[in-house]
Design goal:
- This protein is of the alpha/beta class.
- It folds into two domains: 147 residues, HAD superfamily/HAD-like (Rossmann fold, 3-Layer(aba) Sandwich), CATH 3.40.50; 61 residues.
- Helices cover 44% and strands 12% of the residues.
- It has a six-stranded parallel beta sheet with strand order 3-2-1-4-5-6, sandwiched between helices.
- Helix 6 links the parallel strand 2 and strand 3.
- Helix 3 packs across helix 4.
- It is globular and about 55 Å long.
- The chain starts with a strand and ends in an 11-residue tail after the last helix.
Length: 226
């Protein structure tokens, strides 16, 4: 059975500006000066606990800080919030065709559910896999492998959508054909991490051809196959 696997932050919605504002506030309150590009270089695609281990190594309770950061994010997330262009239509197509659908995210479950509710897609997926319920988070492939297990699909039948280098590495290592979403990183960076192609968003004119070739007899690991 074909399956679509979606990262959440930055892939299904442009949530990075909210996350960045919260991180800047938390870090400045704790006396940590951050560079202009800190979000892309230190935060993007990583788990909060890994981020805090780097930026606040002496914090006595990183788990509590993790909870605080995510509560602040949820409080600032508008409801409703726009989904990435073309996402709702792609998910509807997948449902109509009987394709598997999963969200695979480093976000905690409360945040994942809040974001999906905000974009109106809370009930559109068969499973939501969150990193803190897996042995490892991205860039380890464990979350993607768990999504495949829950859906009962083979890696070669999956297409994953990711916006971060860590996420692309995770999905590619799990064996999925991985497409990069250029919401934060450019084509070259996403391809260097393992993306076979990149899209501006889900309205990109390249996407229908990739889906058609991957799920209609072509190899999902060669979307440009004739």
């Amino acid at each position: 059975m074909p399956a679509l696997l979606f990262d959440l932050d930055g892939t299904m919605l442009v949530s990075d500006p909210i996350h960045e504002a919260v991180f800047r506030e938390l870090l400045s309150e704790r006396g940590v000066a951050v560079a202009e590009d800190f979000y892309v270089t230190k935060v993007h695609g990583r788990t909060n606990l890994d981020i805090f281990a780097d930026l606040l190594p002496d914090d006595p309770d990183p788990k509590a800080l993790d909870e605080l950061k995510e509560a602040m994010f949820r409080a600032r997330l508008p409801h409703p919030y726009p989904a990435m262009p073309g996402l709702a239509e792609l998910v509807a197509q997948a449902r109509a065709n009987g394709w598997g659908r999963a969200v695979v995210t480093n976000a905690m479950r409360k945040n994942a559910e809040a974001m999906l509710a905000a974009i109106g897609l809370r009930d559109a997926f068969e499973t939501i896999v969150v990193a803190d319920e897996c042995a490892h988070g991205k860039p380890h492939p464990a979350p993607y492998l768990e999504a495949m297990r829950q859906l009962g699909v083979a890696a070669e039948d999956c297409i994953a959508f990711e916006d971060s280098a860590a996420g692309v590495r995770a999905a590619a290592a799990a064996g999925a054909l991985t497409l990069g979403i250029r919401s934060a990183l450019d084509d070259a960076t996403l391809r260097a991490a393992g993306a076979v192609a990149t899209l501006a968003d889900f309205t990109d004119p390249a996407l229908p051809d990739i889906l058609g070739r991957a799920f209609a007899g072509g190899s999902p690991h060669d979307p440009h196959r004739a």
